Each structure stands twice: as structure tokens, then as C-alpha cells.
């Protein structure tokens, strides 16, 4: 059993109140670790953008332009951290977000990014308005 599995299914109920909450933070951190790669974010955006709610691995390969082994590794991380689920349909494997609120996570991240980029642009614009300095 991995440490992550132990966190999801703790075997000991004799933890102190601080210890009892620590694994929850670790689980949350692992969620963010699962999201901490551009390819995995791209895959999640592709999955959440699909009206049918599922995307075949073959479509993900085309959209991401990755080798199958690399995509497989990223999908494995997302599955292990319960961010996506998969099912076999004939010879295809279909992926979908494991929770409907994954799209909300992505939207908040996109909004944060937009605001950060916007703030950075405003700061650059303000720099150009500062008085010139003499050397």
C-alpha cells in the first residue's frame, strides 16, 4: 500500500487532532501535484471541453501531440490521484473528469492567471509612465 493509499484509507484512529488533519492537507497537496504539469492541465481542459464528457485516448494523443507512453504516464498520475476516471469501450479507452467540479478548478485557475497577467501588464504600463532617470 502506498503512502497516498494510506492517507485515503487511514488504518489508525488513535491519531491526535493535529495528526488527524495533517493527512487531509497532504491529500490536497497531492491533488495540486497531480495538476502541476502543463500536459495534465491540457488533458483536463480537453476533457472538460468535450460536450460528451469523455475523450478517447486516441483523440488525446492527437490533441496533445505526445508519444503514447508519455500521455499514458500523465493519465496514470491523474487516475492515481482520482482526478480522472477511465472506461474501456471496445478497443478504445475513454477518459472523463472524476468529479464535475474539476471544471470549476480549471476556471478559477484560468481566472487567476488572467488577473495575474493583467496585473503584470498594468505594472509594465505604469513603469513606462514613471519619470525618466538620469545616470
From TrEMBL:
Keyword tags: DNA-binding, Transcription, Transcription regulation
Xref: InterPro entries: ArsR-like_HTH, HTH_ArsR_DNA-bd_dom, Metal_resp_trans_reg, WH-like_DNA-bd_sf, WH_DNA-bd_sf
GO molecular function terms attached to this record: DNA binding; DNA-binding transcription factor activity
Protein's UniProt keywords contain Calcium: no
Residue span, HTH arsR-type domain: 20-117
Record CDD domains: HTH_ARSR
One Pfam family recorded for the sequence: HTH_20
Keyword DNA-binding among UniProt keywords: yes
UniProt name for this protein: ArsR family transcriptional regulator
Species of origin: Aeromicrobium camelliae
Amino acid at each position: 500500500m502506498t503512502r497516498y493509499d494510506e492517507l485515503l484509507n487511514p488504518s489508525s484512529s488513535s491519531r491526535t487532532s493535529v495528526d488527524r488533519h495533517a493527512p487531509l492537507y497532504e491529500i490536497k497537496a497531492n491533488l495540486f501535484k497531480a495538476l502541476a504539469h502543463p500536459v495534465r492541465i491540457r488533458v483536463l481542459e480537453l476533457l472538460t471541453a468535450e460536450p460528451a464528457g469523455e475523450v478517447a485516448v486516441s483523440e488525446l494523443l492527437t490533441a496533445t501531440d505526445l508519444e503514447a507512453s508519455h500521455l499514458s504516464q500523465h493519465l496514470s498520475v491523474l487516475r492515481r490521484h482520482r482526478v480522472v476516471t477511465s472506461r474501456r469501450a471496445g478497443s478504445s479507452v475513454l477518459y472523463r473528469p472524476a468529479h464535475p467540479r474539476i471544471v470549476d478548478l480549471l476556471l478559477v485557475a484560468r481566472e487567476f492567471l488572467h488577473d495575474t497577467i493583467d496585473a503584470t501588464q498594468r505594472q509594465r504600463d505604469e513603469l513606462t509612465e514613471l519619470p525618466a532617470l538620469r545616470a
